[in-house]
Write a structure and sequence with these properties.
It is built from 13 helices and 18 strands.
Length: about 500
Amino acid sequence: MHDNQTLYDIAVIGGGINGAGIAADAAGRGLSVFLCEKDDLASHTSSASSKLIHGGLRYLEHKEFRLVREALAEREVLLAKAPHIIRPMRFIMPHQPHLRPAWLIRTGLFFYDHLGKREKLAGSNHVVFRPEDSPLKDEITRGFEYSDCAVDDARLVVLNAVQAREQGAQIVTRTRCLSARRQAGVWLIELENAQGIYQVQAKALVNAAGPWVAQFIQQALQLKAPYGIRLIQGSHLIVSKLYEGDKAYIMQNDDQRIVFAIPYLGRYTLIGTTDKEYLGDPDQAEITQEEVMYLLDVCNDHFKRQLTAADILSTFSGVRPLCDDESDNPAAVTRDYTLVLSRQLAGEAPLLSVFGGKLTTYRKLAEAALAHLQAFFPEMKKMWTASSALPGAENFSSAEDLAAQIQDKVSGVSAELAMRWVHAYGTRIWKFIQQAASVHELGQDFGHGLYAQEVDYLVECEWAVSAEDILKRRTKLYLEFSADESLQLDQYLQALHQRRAQEDAA
């Protein structure tokens, strides 16, 4: 693909959720699309989220009604589009009268139940906690319960990229955009990967570089960014299961912020997030000691089981690029997205920059992005993503049915492994199981239910290159794998890449 003459309709910079969502939507409307990502897909903000598809209950306090209405409606749309990676989840909010009065929460939940169309998700209700069976401290006696959804965030990005490719998009990872300039009505884009430097051309450029959106405009395009960006760091802790059951808790804190405790991967609890101004390199975001203490304190204020730093199994941090609305409080900075279309002169190639955005509203953001570009591509087909299944959700009846089918067909597959496959690949699972009648036919066993056939599939079909890509973002097995096991996987991958390179050269 190192053809300087390749002219695409749209080139997208950034392979997070916004970039992948825009690429999929545009490709499905008949546009030719090129997307490049400097690292792996979803390797930054998009995989460092709280892994929720939610309406954003707390945004109501900041009067973000448009965002909440859109997000609430999207929960149902996304649940139908990707039932294998998104599942309904009940959230319990313990009531702390000194923080927010009960009437205020009830009003918020009334809006939450009625602002967006709700078909599958149950409404809210009042709950009473009994000291003998509640994981919460005895003094917390009542609360509220409502619905949102949990999602595998990195897989949501990857599946959008797969869908984009199946609609004809060209997706390249580990490819950095060095510069882009307008020339003769098109963008001339200079890219660099391990093989060297090459160029592509595009009629329109979409800057979905996330935390790097402003930097990309200034450095790669040599233009002035239309908005200031505030980078807000959000960090999470992972601990072993804090309580029984499959409900999440939303905990209020004295600083008016909230922290979630969310059941995660069956045996863990995910605790987050923080909201703190970040001034460093987004590539280097790491949890601070202050954030660790903050999250532990909020948890310990609520739960009987007291956590210490020794209970933390893993942490992750991401940086959210939010439009600078000059708010004093990081938690109050708008979570809404802003799209900026700029073209200096008539006839010049357009640049669309994406500021902000959330996992939940990525699809609507993509639609809005293409509405901005409509004038330049009058032949563009109509909106299509609301009703189209993401890869793996085709003919998907239920997770239980599919898991039973897998166990019937492949002997030696545990219920846990079958469910992991279902929640990752949905009905695409047959692509890598192929003809295997037993787990022993799936090739080398790397441990923890990861076999060579799945690894080969992820390299072949999902842009995985390293053990980290596979363990952290494609399968979430990194919490199980030892350093030696990861090394073994990396060695296998190196040999696989060498073999593929030789075949390509032949």
